[in-house]
Amino acid sequence: MSPIYTKSVALKEKDIEQNHICFAFPAYARGDARNRALLVLNSILGDGMSSRLFQRLREELGLVYTVSSFITAHDGAGLFMIYSAQQKSAEEQAAAVIIEELRKLKNEGITDDDLLLAREQIKTGLVTGFESTYSRMGFNARDYMQYGRIRPVEELTAEIDAVDQGAIAAVIDEVIVGEKLSVSVVGRLSDDGFYRRLLM
Fold first, then answer.
1. Which ranges carry the Peptidase M16 C-terminal domain (predicted)?
2. CATH for 57
3. What is the pLDDT of residues 136-178, one digit of tens each?
4. Domain count of the chain?
């Protein structure tokens, strides 16, 4: 039985220097072919220094120490998450900009240049990752457990090249859903209502 996702706000007061926020959407289980398009979308939105979130929040506005998006996929369930760390004084603006970028993604989608760059970055990461014995060992083990075989890098890069604008648009529609957004925060908290107002 697959786990049931429940939208929530989870808050933990802690006297630390930075406030840590994590937004989460339910996504795809391990082995779902749509994860390929989600991987490309993740690269565009928040994976690396050239991503939209890093460029906007860190480089342009200087609001956060770090910001990134990432995918976690398990048997029967998955999550697409966005994490940021910032001073409490910058928390409200940083969170608002993240929501703004999500709405922009939802309303405007991505460009062809976005798609091309993301595919090339992912393929480069795959090829260079295979140069590490440790990384290749982990990849081969996961592949064998999931697929019963070890896929060649050429097959993986072809799957990434097959991701097109239509696949990205479908993933945006299915995953970036405001009614399903959850938020978790650790740090010197603002009032509960502030975090609940962040939900799209």
1. 6-121
2. 3.30.830.10
3. 898 889 888 888 899 998 999 999 999 999 999 999 999 999 9
4. 1
